[in-house]
Amino acid sequence: MASLNISIKNPTINFVWEHNTLIFTCIDQKQSLQSIEFSEYLSVITSINSGLISGKTEIQIACAYACVLAAKSFVDFNNSDYCSKLLRACLDIELIDKGNLSKIIKRMLAAGDVADGPVNGNHSVIEKMALEADCIQKEISISSR
Questions:
Q1: DSSP letters for 42-106
Q2: Which site from 44, 53, 123, 132 is most exposed, i.e. has the minimal number of CB atoms within 10 Å?
Q3: Domain encompassing residue 79
């Protein structure tokens, strides 16, 4: 999958989805470049809850990609367990800020549903959700200009 690097509202913050990993880069208050790679959705949740990732648009984008990381983390489960675990993880992600995330989580789950994991395999769910997260990031980027 091609990497996507879109600078959002604050030009010092970037999200890149590359090789099934979310890379978050920012310039901190000391003007130092910080880069964090997330390979698990729980790490993204922790970073949001700790304030490392903050701001409405940044949280929305991070949560969209957290859904993709959740889909990736359960890929080896059978179809029924996969779907229930992914749904539970996405609902946990939504709880970070339900008012601002409901639309994002619904879009991510709809993308996973369209991928039809039981027929096409769980990897198709990851791929489709990653594409949807990329679209969400582009839309937020354009609307925040």
A1: HHHHHHHHTTSS-SHHHHHHHHHHHHHHHHHHTTTS-HHHHHHHHHHHHHHHHTTSHHHHHHHHH
A2: 123
A3: 5-143
